[in-house]
């Protein structure tokens, strides 16, 4: 089965081709066009601008995605025809989602192929099933990734940390999700981005804050750890952001660009986020006796968080499996949408193209 994944929920236009042979995945293409530069001048993603940028790119990217990287006998490139179309239908920005959804509807109509509507958050979870580089493939310098993840056992605890979401989800089996905790205000990625803005760092703030944090002292400033002792699995990050703002305002203007001061704020803020996230994740994993912990979303790209989470799991949950998510699968990409699409397609969970629609507030259920 060859699955075309389409992702346009926010500011990344992405198309992927994922091949399944008896449950073994080969990722043939994962094209990602990031609109970061376009939105940088506005200091955030502008929905109308995002939709227009998706429109401008998607046809060209489709052309590139559908040509096989393997040349056929007569040396002409072969155009591929996917068996299934998997598209992000929500949650996300309405105008942006519509570009992917309308593309999927058109292709389904023209090709007479089935469509799967994929929840974006399910995509972030299923990024964990994507093939990771096989050493042999790396050594032969092939771009194709072909390797199987067959070590993911249920029940699994999924920690989704992105620009729009901070959620803890229990999966007892494929495609079954139970939300056990979420943020009551800002998402953690949103908080990183806002802290970046407060500190006048370039856009987007998340990776910039992480970069400065690597040079700072995480114990320099005692920022609050909101809801760390709340005995539930909910989060709150807006108070932490305000604490950073008040701290920064107290610093004399002449020192506000001092690299050491910025680095210490970033490291201390990042550590506060990590402490809350890890404490809640370990407690949830213990309570629900999970066999696996999975990570997903743009903030999962934070290497310090991945490092500390790995150590905390090793120290507290010796029997629980955790494998780091490769950085290219953390942020938005269509390969993860194709992977989730595969599991729906396996169960014939298709939607007639006429009924396919964008749902900007689609909860993971
Ligand atoms: O999953 P994603 O690409 O888009 C959403 O679905 O929201 O996540 C984007 C978020 C942004 O808030 C970005 O600043 C954050 O992930 N992010 C990071 C890092 N890299 C990206 N946050 C902290 N540390 C990072 N290294
Ligand atoms: Zn995302």
Over all CA atoms, what is the radius of gyration?
A: 21 Å
Give me the CATH architecture of the largest domain, please.
2-Layer Sandwich
Average predicted confidence as pLDDT:
93
Small-molecule binders: 5'-O-[(R)-(carboxyoxy)(hydroxy)phosphoryl]adenosine, zinc ion
* Shape annotation: globular
Would you tell me which CATH topology of the largest domain applies?
Nucleotidyltransferase, domain 5
Question: In angstroms, what separates the terminal alpha carbons?
Answer: 26 Å
CATH superfamily descriptor of the largest domain: ATPase, nucleotide binding domain
What share of residues are in beta strands?
A: 15-25%
Count of alpha/pi helices: 11
Query: What are the secondary-structure elements, in order, as H or E?
Result: EEEHHEEEHEHHEEEEHHHHEHEH
**Can you identify the CATH class of the largest domain?**
Alpha Beta
* Main sheet: strand order: 7-6-1-2-3-8
* Whole-number total of structural domains: 2
Biggest sheet details: 6 strands, mixed
Helix content: 25-40%
Runs in which pLDDT lies below 50 for 5 or more consecutive residues are: 135-139
> What is the number of strand segments?
13
Given helix and strand content, the structural type is alpha/beta
Summarize this structure briefly.
Belongs to the KAE1 / TsaD family. The protein has 365 residues and is α/β, with parallel strands linked by helices.
Explain how this protein is built:
The protein is α/β, with parallel strands linked by helices and 365 residues long. The chain folds into two domains: 2-151 and 328-355, 2-Layer Sandwich (Nucleotidyltransferase, domain 5), CATH 3.30.420.40; 156-322, Nucleotidyltransferase, domain 5 (2-Layer Sandwich), CATH 3.30.420.40. Helix content is 39%, strand content 20%. It is built from eleven helices and 13 strands. It has helices at 36-40, 47-66, 94-111, 120-126, 135-139, 188-198, 205-213, 238-250, 259-287, 303-316, 334-346, and strands at 2-7, 12-21, 24-34, 67-71, 77-79, 84-90, 115-119, 145-146, 156-161, 166-171, 178-182, 292-296, 321-322. A hairpin with a 5-residue loop joins β4 and β5. α4 (120-126) packs across α11 (334-346), α6 (188-198) packs across α7 (205-213) and α6 runs parallel beside α8 (238-250). Mean pLDDT is 93; it is low at 135-139. The chain binds 5'-O-[(R)-(carboxyoxy)(hydroxy)phosphoryl]adenosine (KG4) and zinc ion. Zinc ion (ZN) binds next to α4.
């Amino acid at each position: 089965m060859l699955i075309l994944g389409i992702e346009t929920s926010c500011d990344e236009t992405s198309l992927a081709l994922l091949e399944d042979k008896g449950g073994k995945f080969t990722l043939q293409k994962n094209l990602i066009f990031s609109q970061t530069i376009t939105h940088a001048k506005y200091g955030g993603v502008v929905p109308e601008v995002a939709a227009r940028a998706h429109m401008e790119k998607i046809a060209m990217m489709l052309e590139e995605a559908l040509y096989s990287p393997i040349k056929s006998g007569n040396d002409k490139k072969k155009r591929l025809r996917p068996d299934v179309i998997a598209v992000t239908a929500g949650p996300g920005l309405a105008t942006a989602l519509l570009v992917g959804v309308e593309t999927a509807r058109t292709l389904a109509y023209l090709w007479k192929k089935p469509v799967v509507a994929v929840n974006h958050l399910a995509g972030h979870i299923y990024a964990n099933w994507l093939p990771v580089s096989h050493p042999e493939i790396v050594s032969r310098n092939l771009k194709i990734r072909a390797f199987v993840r067959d070590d993911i056992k249920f029940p699994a605890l999924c920690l989704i940390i992105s620009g729009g979401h901070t959620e803890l989800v229990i999966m007892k089996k494929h495609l079954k999700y139970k939300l056990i905790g979420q943020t009551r205000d800002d998402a953690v990625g949103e908080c990183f981005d806002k802290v970046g803005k407060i500190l006048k760092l370039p856009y987007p703030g998340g990776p910039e804050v992480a970069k400065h944090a690597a040079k700072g002292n995480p114990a320099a400033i005692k920022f609050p750890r909101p809801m760390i002792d709340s005995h539930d699995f909910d989060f709150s990050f807006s108070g932490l952001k305000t604490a950073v703002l008040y701290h920064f305002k107290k610093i004399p203007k002449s020192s506000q660009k001092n690299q050491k001061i910025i680095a210490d704020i970033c490291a201390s803020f990042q550590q506060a986020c990590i402490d809350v996230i890890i404490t809640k994740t370990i407690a949830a994993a213990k309570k629900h006796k999970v066999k696996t912990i999975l990570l997903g979303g743009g903030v999962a790209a934070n290497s310090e968080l991945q490092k500390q989470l790995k150590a905390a799991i090793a120290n507290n949950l010796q029997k629980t499996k955790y494998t780091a998510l490769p950085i290219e699968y953390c942020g938005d990409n269509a390969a993860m949408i194709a992977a989730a699409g595969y599991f729906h397609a396996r169960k014939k969970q298709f939607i007639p193209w006429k009924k396919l629609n964008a749902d900007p507030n689609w909860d993971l259920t």
